[in-house]
Design a protein that fits this description.
alpha/beta, Rossmann fold, eight-stranded mixed sheet, four-stranded antiparallel sheet, 7 helices, 12 strands, 28% helix, globular
Length: 263
């Protein structure tokens, strides 16, 4: 299957193509740049490294198989929505996507697994938060921006504080940060999240972790770092399990190690 659609809101074409290696797996690209990978036959398999790290944290967010209440800010091809339905059937999920045409295109050509409970919202990620007043989530995933071109209102401590306020007591906020050397934007997002945790009257030291390939934290390579914030002290056993599950070589920075990264 190969499909294409013009996203008039951003003036770029979205395409869905077979990945060429795995039967039943597809790649979503926008403007020629790969955005998402979906394996319809095996949604529990995650191809992209940073999404695999997010999936590994989601695996720790509750006992195995237990449904989660999850909010996805930035829908893409709904890779993590599919993952949660496969690994935690019955999870109640919501996804906010700015481009209606993109979401319609994805759902038309890459249908969700049977039984998926997903509420879709079209709109700006921050402006749409009012819709979720009075609700709480066990996991919130922010996967919208990359580098200094990120929408400014989505890269601030105020916005992060709003997201943290939507977390359940045992919930986790996961933020994908893509950046280029010397990772100035990624370092700033760590500081913004630390400030947001402090705003909530929480101990930021130990409540925030950065996950990525070990070499990423030298600041010499482009790539993705996943930031994970909790409303409770970061469990040391999570660090050990995330290091063990990879992808390798893996690093998990917390506390003083994370402070050294931010400089």
């Amino acid at each position: 299957m190969n499909a294409s659609r013009l996203l008039r809101g951003i003036g770029a074409h979205a395409t869905i193509t077979e990945d060429g290696f795995t039967p039943g797996a597809y790649i979503l690209s926008i403007g020629g740049a790969e955005q998402s990978h979906v394996d319809l036959a095996r949604p529990q398999e995650i191809f992209y490294e940073y999404l695999r790290r997010i999936g590994n944290v989601l695996d720790l967010a509750a006992p195995a198989g237990e449904p989660l209440r999850a909010l996805h800010l930035g829908a893409g091809a709904l890779t993590l929505t599919r993952y949660l339905q496969a690994t935690r059937p019955g999870s109640e999920q919501a996804a906010v996507e700015l481009e209606r045409e993109l979401l319609d295109f994805v759902l038309a050509h890459l249908p969700l697994p049977e039984g998926t409970r997903l509420e879709t919202v079209i709109g700006d990620a921050r402006e749409s938060l009012d819709r979720f007043d009075g609700r709480s989530f066990d996991a919130i995933v922010l996967d919208i921006f990359a580098g200094p071109d990120a929408p400014a209102h989505l890269a601030t401590s105020d916005f992060y504080a709003e997201l943290i306020a939507l977390l359940s007591p045992a919930g986790v906020l996961l933020v994908n940060v893509g950046d280029d050397p010397p990772l100035a934007f990624a370092r700033r997002q760590v500081r913004e999240l630390q400030a947001a945790l402090g705003t909530g009257g929480l101990d930021a030291d130990g409540a925030l972790a950065a996950l990525g390939q070990r070499d990423m934290f030298t600041g010499r390579y482009p790539g993705n770092i996943v930031l994970a914030a909790t409303r409770f002290p970061w469990p040391a056993e999570w660090t050990q399990q995330l290091l063990a599950t990879g992808p390798h070589p893996a690093a998990v920075l917390t506390g003083e190690d994370l402070d050294r990264f931010t400089g």
